[in-house]
Amino acid sequence: MPGDDLYSVLGVSRDASADEIRSAYRRLARQYHPDVNPGNSEAEEKFKEISAAYAVLSDAEKRAQYDQYGVTEPFQGGVNPNDFLRDFGFGDIFEAFFGGGGRSDPWNERGGDEEVNVEVGLEEVLTGTEKEVRYKRLARCLACEGSGAKSGTKPETCATCSGRGSVTRLVQSFLGQMQTTAPCPACKGKGKTIKDPCPECKGRGLRVEETSLTVEVPAGVESGNTLRVSGKGSDGTGSGGTGDLYVALRVRADKRFAREGTTLFTVKEVTFAQAVLGDETEVEGIDSTVGFAIPPGTTHGHRFRLKGHGLPRLHGGSRGDLIVVAEIEVPNKLSDEQADLLRAYAASRGEILKEPSGSGFLGGLFGKKKG
Ligand SMILES: [Zn+2]
Ligand SMILES: [Zn+2]
Questions:
Q1: Among 152, 132, 136, 102, which residue's Cα sits nearest to residue 206?
Q2: Taking Cα atoms as reference points, which of 59, 75, 47, 55 lies closest to residue 18?
Q3: Does the global pTM surpass 0.85?
Q4: Tens digit of each residue's pLDDT (9 = 90 or more) over 18-62
Q5: Which ligand is nearest to the CA of 160?
Q6: How many angstroms does the Cα of residue 194 sit away from the middle of ligand 1?
Q7: Which domains does the chain have, with CATH numbers?
């Protein structure tokens, strides 16, 4: 397993979002969990492998470290894949990782993930940047310390359900007496009731706050990339922990350049004489003026590849290329002297040019059609 790329273990790309990684793991874990494959040691090995990969890639810090240094400490020493097998059964593992499973505890719920959109320009893609983002999140109410009960009071065990959160009733049906279980109507399934709600948060224990945060946007990002900032989402209840902030990135369209991954494209106007005779010229790159040679006989649409003048890869490494597309200008206004020179040029090649009938382009065209 060491040496195996963790991304390929989970079958995701290196720039997969946290959500993509999570659902890839979830899918594979369901497929390979030992409880689903009793006695199949191959599946067990595979399960350990994907669990270890997920342990690293689901943690923003460990993932960043892995991206930078490859397999490192947290992976080798910090996570023993066997722990997953020892500590979790099939049901448990999903609950531990993904929540749900019917045993959720409203008093200790993880806070929600929040999302914010960030737009960056191509220059920022080149260098990486810091962006201040503003967003709303649920924060633990300071007045009641998150309990929802007015300061000096506490939530009380629900008298209707004795704290179970659900009530069982006997119902008469044509099959006889049946037992049904439903969420307790008195406490709405929470098991506790609040007599005097905290006036600051109206008993929720959480309040909406607007907050700001500086986010590091690495070089090389593309529209659709998402950054996860761990623990910056909404506060949870009790010991439920805080959600994450997802930063959805969009790269602004640029008039000067088209982009395909790390490759930039730009158009360079080339005069008729330059195209025919060749020239040393230059083009504006994203961060510098780049010189290049136009060889004699360059045709319209020709592409020049200027190595290393494109954008960097997301996880570091060399820059891509700048492709310069030649757009050859055909002169549409010549002085008499220039026209004479061109006629002389044509004559020297044995070309006989007839004066187009009518005046101007349209006149010539219609004149021809009439015969
Ligand atoms: Zn409160
Ligand atoms: Zn109740």
A1: 136
A2: 59
A3: no
A4: 888 988 888 888 788 777 777 888 888 888 888 888 888 888 888
A5: 2
A6: 11
A7: 1-104 (1.10.287.110), 105-139+205-252 (2.60.260.20), 156-193 (no CATH), 254-330 (2.60.260.20), 336-371 (no CATH)
